[in-house]
Design brief:
CATH architecture of the largest domain: Orthogonal Bundle
Organism: Streptomyces rubradiris (Streptomyces achromogenes subsp. rubradiris)
CATH topology of the largest domain: Arc Repressor Mutant, subunit A
Radius of gyration: 25 Å
Helix content: 40-55%
Protein name: Homeodomain-like domain-containing protein
Number of strands: 2
Largest sheet: 2 strands, antiparallel
Shape: rod-shaped
CATH class of the largest domain: Mainly Alpha
Structural class: mainly alpha
């Protein structure tokens, strides 16, 4: 067996420690700091196949707002009106409803769906 030189010579031993820490519920940053691994490629190889702990997963806190914004947009509401109703930014609304068909607006009334415009931008 070839002898390995360098900081990570005992890779398998380091992997076992990294996996044990991950199973204890530590984040990647906490594992990196405890094992003094400065290279993200090495850290990726050490933790390969190990799922992240539940507490590190980011919740989708605005899922309910997104669903409501989509429903309102389908009813013909404008971004401004949805923004006032839900209290969220227009940029978020735009991202949430961008795949929905657009309306043809004439003055203050909506005359229906513009099917040719959906998906064209």
């Amino acid at each position: 067996m070839a002898q390995t030189y360098g900081t990570y010579a005992d890779f398998e031993g380091l992997r076992e420690r990294a996996v044990a820490l991950r199973r204890e519920g530590l984040s990647r940053r906490q594992i990196r700091d405890r094992l003094h691994v400065d290279n993200n490629d090495i850290l990726n190889r050490l933790l390969e196949g190990e799922p992240p702990p539940e507490w590190t997963k980011r919740p989708n806190a605005k899922d309910d707002l997104r669903d409501r914004a989509r429903a309102l947009r389908l009813q013909g509401w404008t971004y401004d009106r949805i923004q006032l109703e839900l209290g969220c930014s227009k940029s978020s609304i735009s991202l949430w409803v961008r795949d929905l068909p657009r309306f043809i607006w004439r003055g203050s009334t909506c005359s229906g769906w513009n099917a040719s415009a959906s998906g064209s931008t």
